[in-house]
Amino acid sequence: MSRKWDTAQSTLACACRKSSRTSTLLRTGLGIWEVHTYIYAMTAHSTRSKKLYRWRIARIRGTPAEIIGHIEAPDADTAIKEAVRKYRITDPEKQKRLIAQRME
Question: Distance between CA 92 and CA 12 in Å, rounded?
Fold first, then answer.
């Protein structure tokens, strides 16, 4: 192994050993470059977060609709699923009648 390779590998190893996950991966037999690539891919994926909007959840029962509450979620479908869980709406007929209106 050349001197240049040893220096680069030890520098990267020192930088990566701050994380307990990195040291665990190194103990599994992966080389330092594979671990670095794996960790780089993980951080790139986790930095993308969806913006949360405030949604008014209502049940269509008649006029006017019955307001259930407010939920923060990235989209309407997720807001309805979260409302079903948060407000414990177990009746399938009531779940079908839920709507989400995005609040400004």
Answer: 54
